[in-house]
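Quick log. Single chain, no ligands specified.
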Amino acid sequence: MRTAKTISITLSPDLLAKAQKTAEREDRTISELFREALRRYITADPEWDALLRRTHAAGKALGIATEADVERLSDEFRQERLQSATH
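-> predicted structure:
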């Protein structure tokens, strides 16, 4: 049984020519080239990595070690906000 799905994308003629040349130079198919490009794009997002580093450091400083800690702190924040709104 096939586990991959076929998709269609639209490319400018210039970008398609560059992709074809790159695939040929690397002895790959266009599909292999685009799969690798997408894998790299998804796993190497510098903004996401920077956000994770900042939030990890902030969480560690607050003593947050688990998802349960996050839930507990969220509940405490909501409860405090509710109490301050009613007083």
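The chain has four helices and no strands.
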